[in-house]
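In practice, a research group might receive sequence data for several interacting partners and want a quick structural hypothesis before committing to experiments. The following worked case mirrors that situation: the sequences arrive first, and a predicted assembly follows.
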Amino acid sequence: MLSTSYVLLTIVGCGIVTLLSRTLPFVLLKNHSLPPLVVELLSFVPITIMTALWVTNLFTQHLGHLPSVNYENLFASIPTVITAAITKILLWIVLVGVVSLAILRAVM
Amino acid sequence: MTDELDIRTAIKDTLPTVFGYIGIGLAFGVVSQSVGLSVLMVVLMSAITYAGSAQFIMVSMLVSHNPVVSIMVAVFLVNARMILMSTVVAPYFKKDSMWRNIFIGALLTDESFALSMNKVNYTDHKMSFEWFNTANLIAYFTWMIASGVGALLGQLVAHPERLGLDFALVAMFIGLLYLQVIADRSLAKSLQLIVILAEAVIIYLGLIFIPGNLLLVVGTLLGCATGVVIKHAFY
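A structural hypothesis for the assembly, expressed as tokens:
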């Protein structure tokens, strides 16, 4: 059984860490501008972050060795991408993704 | 999406992402309850820490009784990408008060970030406090309620993984990435596709020797640098 004080302390500690990561750039950039090169670098953040979050979910990491493929997520990604291309509607994309994985787990 | 930036439009724009939060929030509640966290602690973690996927890591580290400081470091590493996102969003709110800036930052999420980057493609790169704050608040309360409901439902569902809910977040990233590419007119489509492929290769190679927590930040920065180099060389 986890003690309430241990869990609460972790919740608050991690809350402070997360809050600082999110708000410090806002505070620091309120009266300062970033150099043009940094702005250009950051213009790629949306697509690279989304790609990174996706691709890390397609593999299972084994440090020091090649990652193994997470076939469930890989196969579930295919109908998800197709749905994105056809509908361009986020709700459908998420629903098809979840249902695809559920079906895959039922048959595999 | 339209160029409107009022609260009503924000609700309309944000609603489709709500189902992603519900899926993964429910999953988080179910999982946390199953390893011994009370409904109250699940809701408090979602309300106070509000760290999305990092909360799964917190729960697994709590269960194996890691020191609080170790858990804080892990959460920082997993969410260090928030620093990048905040840095991208902050310039849009230069004219707003410091408190409004802090409030937008405090509730910023992967999804509200991606959604807003999508939105500015339609608004001639303008953003409003009302729009962003509404998107953030909807995400915040949906996440909190969904994780609480998940913890309550956890007592009823025997095999939560069969529902496929854990894919909701990945599907949302795929959807937001696709929508970003088709909406962004500031970068050439071919350049975006090349950078996405390069990023995928970087992450694959990075998985071999960079620990997962660090990889998201290092991989993202390397991908951005690759993008800048290719843009200057060929575009």
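Before designing any experiment, note the following. Chain A has a mean pLDDT of 91. Chain A has five helices and two strands.
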